Structures are given as C-alpha cells and as structure tokens.
Amino acid sequence: MLRITQETLDGKTARARLEGQVVGPYVMEVRRFCESFLQAGRSVSLDMSDVSFVDRNGLTLFKELTSHSVSFVNCPPFLTEQLKEDAS
Q1: Distance between CA 15 and CA 70 in Å, rounded?
Q2: Residue 86 lies in a domain
Q3: Residue 82 lies in a domain
Q4: Is residue 73 helix, strand or coil?
C-alpha cells in the first residue's frame, strides 16, 4: 500500500509525502500525481522518508522523474543506493 499526501502547493512547487511501498499499481499513481503538476508547469518535491520499498518499475519512474524537475528529499539510504546503482 502507498499513501500520497500533498503537503504544500504554491505557485511553483507541489510537495508531497510518500508513505509505504512504491510497487505495482502504486507506481502509476505516483506518475499520475507528478504529471498533473508537471503539466501545469510546477516542479514537484517528494518526501521519501516513509518509503519502505521500491520495485524495479518504481526505480525506473524515479529516474525518469529526476529529469523532469522532480526532487526527492529525505530518501532512505537503501533508496539512495538503488538510485545510484540504477544510474550506472
């Protein structure tokens, strides 16, 4: 299960907290959430402090989102390492 909680929204940035696992159908939910703001010209910041697991599709999505003004804050160490490995 994954919970996406929008924390702030100003004229330029949407910030949200992800809680749980970014797997299966939840990967598409994260994509839809981010794309709705990116298409409106806003940047997105995702607080990852409560993410416990990310599957391969989630890692692929996160890699793609980094090139579209999406920033990740409070990434757990396991996720930081996975994103580094995925970049190689």
Answers
A1: 10
A2: no
A3: no
A4: strand
